[in-house]
Amino acid sequence: MIQVGDRLPDVVLMEYCEASTPGCALGPQPVRVREAAAGKLVALFAVPGAFTPTCSTRHLPGYLQRYDELRAAGVKEIWCVSVNDAFVMHAWGREQGANGKIRMLADGSAEFARATGLTLDLTARGLGLRSNRYSMLVQDGIVRVLNVEGAGALEVSDADTLLAQLRSWSAQVG
């Protein structure tokens, strides 16, 4: 399992672009994780699935509520990662009002989840291999804070916890 001090895995996630811009064509676009995290402070949180109850009513909304505070504390980007496809992640982000604030990144084949060792096997529930619920603070591609949830919990990977840890970490590193 990935640990504090480890570099993010060099895998590709997918992100749906709703409008064509000079840097992004319309539709799903690859996001190389290491490149995308380079040179910035990222608040990353992962959920077992888009549109699922806890993810939709508490986890993602918490990061939206703390968006301005996270940004004011130095976070350049907030990433939400889930084992879903880019179309689903985009639709969920639109439904939640997250698009334009939180990067909704699809890990459709669970490559990122496997590479981090943070998988959750929900095959018995008909959901297959998913991502565990967690959050991390990533500086220039290096994990600085990691909060992994126990089964069915949302106690340590919420936005309030990560924001408090970010403030503490920032005070320590000056």
From TrEMBL:
It catalyses: a hydroperoxide + 2 glutathione = an alcohol + glutathione disulfide + H2O. Residues 2-168 form the Thioredoxin domain. Its EC number is 1.11.1.27. One of its GO terms (molecular function) is thioredoxin peroxidase activity. Thiol-specific peroxidase that catalyzes the reduction of hydrogen peroxide and organic hydroperoxides to water and alcohols, respectively. Plays a role in cell protection against oxidative stress by detoxifying peroxides. This is Glutathione-dependent peroxiredoxin. Keywords: Antioxidant, Oxidoreductase, Peroxidase, Redox-active center. It comes from the Bacteria. It comes from Tepidimonas alkaliphilus. Pfam families: Redoxin.
